[in-house]
Design goal:
heterodimer, A: 152 residues, alpha+beta, 6-stranded mixed beta sheet, 9 strands, 18% helix, B: 108 residues, mainly beta, 5-stranded mixed beta sheet, elongated
């Protein structure tokens, strides 16, 4: 999804790019939405994704990308024959797309997890949940980041 | 290994109740992307794996990337059907394993 960049965002991007170039031989490249898609494909094995049933709780604007609270809830009964087994979290603008994979069991009781993550820039957080019957659910949310949190 | 992990787990619950668990381990979660003042890359050193078991059965675990913030905080749920002990494990890139335990009393 494209949106027009404000002058401030353009400046911030420029500054970020310069900082990254001076880093030299470190693994520099930002993940792109294509890298994020590749990470998701690795998780799903190329199976189709169904949107919905996932609630992502993230701030709309994160002033400090070093620690952004993230909370995920998947609507699931979490019974032994119908539960969410794995939840993948991907960020499409970080140096690397992977954030975390959560593994759940019926003993988890609720298909929910929360943590704090680092975000480099304004980007999308994509969550994919795998159910015990082999289906994949997905949801995404954009966060606007004022100060990136991946070093550089 | 510096500080003890911080845990927030109820001491008691009713049978079948879903309890909320919060854990935090003090750790710098060095991404491996930063450079020091001399320009040398600071090597990656993160907690890459967390797991929680209840009476030896897996409840929740996480594969963690450098995109998880310093002092990794994890919140999740567990359904308890019997009294027992939660065991928490954090694995560092350098192989260090930190563990913590918490007992819960389950009443009918």
């Amino acid at each position: 999804m494209m949106h027009r960049m404000t002058r401030r965002q353009a400046l911030a991007l420029g500054a970020g790019a310069t900082a990254m170039i001076t880093v030299g031989d470190a693994p520099l490249a930002f993940a792109t939405p294509a890298d994020a898609d590749a990470e998701i494909a690795k998780f799903t094995g190329g199976k189709p994704l169904t949107a919905g049933k996932i609630t992502i709780d993230l701030p709309e604007i994160a002033e400090n990308g070093n620690t952004v609270p993230l909370s995920i809830v998947v609507d699931s009964p979490m019974t032994p024959d119908n539960y969410v087994s794995d939840i993948l979290v991907v960020a499409d603008g970080n140096p690397r797309p992977g954030v975390a994979v959560f593994h759940l069991t019926p003993l988890s009781g609720r298909a929910a997890a929360a943590t704090r993550i680092r975000l480099q820039t304004t980007e999308n957080i994509i969550v994919v949940a795998k159910t015990s019957d082999g289906k994949f659910l997905t949801e995404r949310k954009q966060v606007k980041v004022t100060i990136g949190g991946c070093g550089g | 290994m510096a500080e003890k992990p911080r845990l927030k787990v109820p001491a008691q619950a009713k049978k079948g109740e879903v309890v909320e668990i919060k854990t935090l381990l003090a750790h710098g979660m060095e991404t491996g992307l930063r450079k020091d003042a001399g320009g040398a890359v600071i090597p990656r050193k993160i907690i890459n794996k967390f797991s929680c078991e209840f009476n030896g059965k897996p409840v929740f675990s996480a594969d963690i990337e450098p995109a998880v913030a310093a002092n990794p905080y994890l919140q999740f749920s567990a359904r308890v059907d019997e009294s027992g002990t939660f065991k928490f494990t954090w694995v560092d890139d350098d192989g260090t394993v930190t563990t913590a335990e918490h007992a819960i009393l389950v009443t009918a």
